[in-house]
Amino acid sequence: MFLSSVPTAFVLSTFLLVILLLLAGVYSLIKMKRQINLAENVQVNCYEDSYRPLSDAIIILNNNNQFVYLNPAAEEMLGCKLRSMMGRVYGDAFEFKNFKTGRVLHNVIGSSVEKKCECLLATIMNQSFSVAVKYSPIRKYENGAEKTSYLIELKDITKRKAEESRISLLENYDSLTQMRKQKSFEAAIKNLIDNSYKYDLKHVLVFFSIDQFQNINESIGYSGADNLIKTIAETIKKYLKKGVDIVGRVGASEFSVVFRNDSLPAAVRTIEVILKAVENCNFTLLGREYPTTMSAGFVIIGDEVISPTKAISDASVACSVARKHGGNLLYAYKSENAEIKKLEGNLEWIGILKKAMKENLFQMFAQPIHCLTEDEYKKPYSHYELLIRLFDAKGKPIAPYEFLSAAEYYSMMPAVDRWVVRNSLEQISKIPFQKPLPVFAINLSGQSLNDPRFLQYVLDEVENSGVNPEMLCFEITEQVAVEDISLVNQFIASLKSVGSQFSLDDFGTGISSYEYLRSLDVDYLKIDGGFVKNIDSDEVARSMVQSISQVGHTMGLKIIAEYVENEKILKILREMGVDYGQGYYILKPGPLNEVARHHLQKTSGRS
User: Fold this and answer.
1) In a 3-state reduction of DSSP, which class is residue 378?
2) What is the torsional sign of CA 84, 90, 95, 96?
3) Co-location of 423 and 486 in the same domain
């Protein structure tokens, strides 16, 4: 009744007013949205000029971690378009994860300082990439107020990480048996020894050796011997606790196992089972059965063991006693055993080494490290590695492995290295300034680098000798370098500050990782000769050398290849772009005093 009394014109005018107010509100919202979009477009266009052409993914976030900009490379990597992600938080599109654990990394984004890291990028599209991340705050002022946004640069390193992983596998594991190589095995033992000290743990290390392997090898040939080794390796692994025990191939026909946190009786029972299984493996080749047995020696890893080298050496000595008594036996290492003392040559090497240093019976030899480019290869030698040599009373050379292994075993390497440094500098000091300035590489052991007084000794000797530090390059092995990165870097920094250079030796044989390589300020990367000597016949070795060379060059390093034994190897290395070569095909080592004399004559104008 009331509504019917209201004039129709009033109702219509009220309705029209409401419509107009709604339209005005919608227009205001549209206008506001247009202004926001215009501001965003201006900002996006600003970023487009700088980042659109880049091949690396670029992401801009505001201070609420919302997307402000994605360049085309980022859109492709994340699998989403900028228009659909505007205003959404980065977690809607991707997250960063740890390579090894797969755990989400929350500390990469959100910091007020620049960050760099390498990690896994997991996208909402269920894709993952290995990426190098650079995170940078961008600060600017608008109307007197600071406004911060965040730039994220993502470089796809998936191919590089896959190659590093493949190379790491080749470096650390024997391709025939899939067991750890010796240096990788020793590194694993070192970790166990460190933990043994900390937590009072005990482990049993056993050394296996195939009995009469040389005779078997001569009967069945290399290919047959490889089949035998593979068969025995599989037999050993069958009785180990996967993921707990550690196994390595430590010689042509030798294996070593660490039974972790195992009681001695339990470990001995397992060793005896393995020996019996090998004896019963019935190895057959071309219809003929070959009897196979192994000898074994073991040692307990605990407080009394000071190094992986000594642990393996002690077990090896016990194994030698087992072989001497007929083979297919297990012996425990006992230092007081008369036979073991005889095999060790107890204290004999200490006397030999001390006498050699006191009476200067050592000799320093030099072998050229020569540039492989065709023009430079024709020029005279100017870069050398210094090598220590020892001769017996009849003038017959003693294999460096013998006396250097003994020096390491008896912790005498710091004394030997001091002799090398002083003697080498004395001879190098006779060479006057000349162009090009000759460079001499001096090898340093891990024991010396761990000696807190050794660095100052080297610095003092260089200063006292008057040798230009730029004539010196110090070589350290990969395994030594990764044992204590901070200590090695301190040593490197001190000597590089006066002008010397550094070379990382034996790369590719140990537990090498390109993560470690990036952490070391070295100038040269020397590829282990074990790979180089086979590149003319082994595709895996060639691929290994090629990969190391490429990655090393990417890091700005000069690459040196050892064991250049023939013209074909030299040609392949030259085609790969390897910078320097060292080996008998280039020149055999010769006495350092003759090299010094040659450079002295060169300066005085005589041939």
Assistant:
1) coil
2) positive
3) yes
Q: Which one, of 340, 322, 186, 316, lies nearest residue 253 by Cα?
A: 316
Domain boundary among 156, 191, 224: 156
d(CA 42, CA 583): 63
Q: Which has more confidence, 284 or 40?
A: 284
pLDDT digit string, tens, across residues 494-527? 999 999 999 988 776 544 456 667 778 899 999 8
Residue 12 lies in a domain: no
Residue 200 backbone class (left: φ over 0; alpha: ψ -120 to 50; beta: rest): left
Q: CA 67, CA 57: separation in Å to the nearest integer?
A: 13
Residue ranges making up the domain that contains 395: 348-603
Statement to judge: residues 394 and 454 lie in one domain? yes
Q: Is residue 9 part of a domain?
A: no
Domain shared by 391 and 479, yes or no: yes
532 and 458 share one domain: yes
User: Can you read off the two tokens belonging to residue 329?
Assistant: 């036996």
Helix (H) or strand (E) holding 277: helix 264-279
Tell me: do 420 and 330 sit in the same domain: no
The residue count of the chain comes to 607
Shared domain check, 366 and 499? yes
Supply the pTM of this predicted model.
0.54
Query: Cβ atoms within 10 A of the Cβ of 168, count?
Result: 17
Q: How many CB atoms lie within 10 A of CB 157?
A: 15
* Cβ within 8 Å of residue 510, ≥6 positions away: 171, 172, 181, 183, 184, 187, 477, 478, 479, 482
SS3 603: helix
Distance between CA atoms of 406 and 447, rounded to whole angstroms?
Answer: 13
34-44 pLDDT, tens per residue? 544 444 454 55
Alpha carbons 194 and 200: distance in angstroms, whole number: 10
